[in-house]
Design a protein that fits this description.
single chain, 376 residues, alpha+beta, seven-stranded mixed beta sheet
Length: 376
C-alpha cells in the first residue's frame, strides 16, 4: 500500500494496535502513489500533502507512511512533513498515535479557535499561529468584511513536522516549494519548517496591515473633504471592528515568538532560533502599526463627530437668522391684524407704503448683518 493509502488507514484507526494492522496491510500491497501530486483525493479527506525529506531533499520514491517514519527514526537523517486541513477527530486519531502526540495538543488542533501559543510536551513542540487575509472589496461600506482569520497548528518533533490548517486561506503549498528550493536550510530539520511557517504568517500580517492602511487613508480623505460631515460613520466603526479582529491575531503572538527564540528551548535547532528573533521584530512592527491605526481611527471618528457638531451649529444659526428676519413682518402684520376700531394708520393714504418700506428696510438690514457675521 502507498503512503497515501496507508495514511487513509491511519486516519481511520484510533485504537491500540491499529498501527500494527496498518503495517501488515502495507507489506501485503506496495503500490506507490506520487505524494507530490497537489490533489487531495489520493491523500484522504483532510490530508493535503505528505512528503519525506533526507538531507533537505525530497525523497522521490517515498515508502508507505509507517516505513517512512521508522526509516527517519532509525537513520536520524530526515523527517516527514504531513500537511492537514481541518481534520476530524476520527481522521486524526491514528496520526496522533503514530507520532505519539499529546492528547491536549491534539484536541486543540482539531477544535481550533485557539489563542497563539507555544507548548512543549516531552520531546515535541506544539505551536498555534493565527493567520489573516485581506478581503478585497471595491468600496468600503458599513458591512464590508476587511480581514478574514484562520489558524495554523504545527507539531514539531525530532523526525516529523505536522501542519494543521483551519480556514479558507493560508495554504502552505508555495511555502513548501520555497523551502525545497533551499535544501541547505531545509536540512536543519523540522525547526526550519516551523520558522518558515512563523515567518510566512508574520509577513502576511504586514501585507494585511498595508492593505488596511489604504482603507484608512480613503476614510480619512472622505472625512476631511468639504462634505466630510455627511460621511458615513458606519465605515469608521466597521474598520475599527476589523482592526480589532486583526489585533486579536497579531498581538498575542509576541510571547510565543520570544519563547521560540529562547536558547533554553532545546527542541528548535540553535541556528534556527536566531531567525525567530527577526520574525519577532516583524511581529512587533505589525503590532505597533495596528496600535497606531487604532489611535488614528479614534482621531478620525472624533474629527467626524466634531464636523457633525459644527454643521449642526451652522444650521441652527441659519435657522435662527431667518427666524429673526421673518419675525419683523410677522410682528407688524400681527399688530395690524388685531381689528381695533380706532387705528389712525388704517385711514392714512401713505400708511400701506410706509409699512411695506419699514418692513423691507428692517429685513434687509438684518440680512446684511447676519451675512457679515457668517450666519447666512
Amino acid at each position: 500500500m502507498s503512503m497515501a493509502g496507508n495514511l487513509r488507514k491511519v486516519t481511520s484507526l484510533g485504537t491500540v494496535g491499529g498501527l500494527r494492522r496498518v503495517a501488515r496491510m502495507a507489506r501485503r500491497r506496495r503500490r506507490r502513489v506520487d505524494l507530490s501530486h497537489p490533489a487531495r483525493s489520493p491523500l484522504g479527506s483532510s490530508v493535503v500533502n505528505c512528503v519525506a525529506y533526507e538531507y533537505g531533499h525530497r525523497v522521490p520514491a517515498c515508502p508507505d507512511l509507517v516505513d517512512a517514519v521508522e526509516r527517519v527514526r532509525k537513520t536520524g537523517d530526515g523527517f516527514v512533513w504531513l500537511g492537514l486541513h481541518e481534520p476530524t477527530t476520527r481522521e486524526f486519531a491514528g496520526i496522533a498515535e503514530l507520532f505519539d502526540l499529546h492528547p491536549l495538543a491534539v484536541e486543540d488542533a482539531i477544535e481550533a479557535h485557539q489563542r497563539p501559543k507555544v507548548e512543549q510536551y516531552g520531546d515535541s513542540l506544539f505551536a498555534v499561529f493565527k493567520t489573516v487575509c485581506y478581503v478585497e472589496h471595491e468600496e468600503l461600506t458599513a458591512t464590508s468584511e476587511v480581514v478574514d482569520t484562520g489558524e495554523i497548528m504545527v507539531f514539531v518533533g525530532q523526525y516529523f513536522v505536522i501542519t494543521v490548517r483551519h480556514g479558507r486561506h493560508g495554504s502552505l503549498g508555495p511555502l513548501r516549494e520555497e523551502l525545497e528550493a533551499v535544501p541547505d536550510h531545509l536540512a536543519k530539520g523540522p525547526s526550519a519548517v516551523l520558522h518558515a511557517v512563523a515567518d510566512h504568517v508574520v509577513d502576511e500580517y504586514l501585507n494585511v496591515v498595508e492593505s488596511v492602511q489604504e482603507d484608512i487613508d480613503a476614510v480619512e480623505t472622505d472625512v476631511f473633504t468639504e462634505s466630510g460631515a455627511r460621511a458615513d460613520p458606519g465605515r469608521i466603526y466597521q474598520l475599527k471592528r476589523e482592526l480589532l479582529e486583526l489585533k486579536r491575531a497579531v498581538v498575542p503572538l509576541s510571547r510565543p515568538l520570544l519563547e521560540l527564540a529562547d536558547p533554553t528551548l532545546r527542541i528548535a535547532d540553535p541556528e534556527i532560533q536566531a531567525y525567530f528573533r527577526d520574525v519577532s521584530d516583524h511581529q512587533q512592527r505589525a503590532t505597533e502599526q495596528i496600535a497606531a491605526f487604532d489611535e488614528l481611527l479614534n482621531s478620525i471618528l472624533q474629527a467626524h463627530l466634531a464636523q457633525v457638531t459644527v454643521a449642526q451649529n451652522e444650521d441652527m444659526r441659519k435657522i435662527t437668522a431667518w427666524a429673526a428676519i421673518i419675525a419683523v413682518p410677522t410682528m407688524v402684520c400681527g399688530m395690524y391684524g388685531m381689528n381695533f376700531d380706532h387705528m389712525p394708520e388704517l385711514h392714512w393714504r401713505y400708511g400701506y407704503p410706509m409699512v411695506i418700506g419699514f418692513i423691507s428696510v428692517i429685513c434687509v438690514t438684518l440680512y446684511r448683518r447676519f451675512r457679515r457675521i457668517g450666519w447666512l
